[in-house]
Design a protein that fits this description.
Layout (H helix, E strand, L loop, with lengths): L1 E8 L3 H12 L4 E5 L12 E2 L1 H6 L12 E10 L2 E11 L2 H12 L3 E3 L5 E4 L2 E4 L3 E8 L3
Parallel strand pairs: 1-2, 1-9, 2-6
Antiparallel strand pairs: 3-5, 4-5, 7-8, 8-9
Helix pairs in contact: 1-3
Length: 138
């Protein structure tokens, strides 16, 4: 059985960032992810400068492409609007993998089926044990 202080189920942005923050505080943890990274993620890829701030990242340190969007043009029923916007387009396949690598914790490819609370912690499928469990699956 593989043991740790904290098991994080889900290696996307939330799980990877949780692992990164725990590791920075000296807390032993690992991530369980059902599929290996990098992986295709077919969902929105827009983030704001605040996301970089919250992740303690400088956009200039991000090793992949960022497309900056400074405004939006909307047309609804003949009404045309220009709205200021501060967003950046990212590719989730790159962004998620970057965050998980930055966490620098072990990642185990495993599909969670059974969680049992026992012995002051959590046993997952009889293979993993952690004192604490974080659910970060999207």
């Amino acid at each position: 059985m593989i043991r740790t202080e904290v098991i994080i189920v889900g290696g996307g942005p939330a799980g990877a960032t949780c692992a990164w923050a725990l590791r920075r505080q000296g807390v032993a943890c690992f991530v369980l992810e059902r599929e290996p990274f990098p992986r295709v993620k077919l969902c929105a890829g827009w983030i704001t400068p605040d996301v970089f701030r919250d992740l303690a990242l400088d956009p200039s340190d991000y090793p992949h492409g960022l497309t900056r969007l400074e405004g939006l043009r909307l047309s609804v029923g003949g009404l045309k609007l220009r709205l200021p916007s501060r967003q950046m387009a990212i590719r989730r396949v790159e962004f998620d993998d970057f965050l998980l690598q930055r966490a620098d914790v072990p990642v185990h490819t495993h599909f969670v089926r059974d969680i049992i609370r026992r012995d002051g912690g959590y046993s997952i499928d009889g293979r993993f044990f952690g004192r604490y469990l974080v659910g970060a699956g999207g």
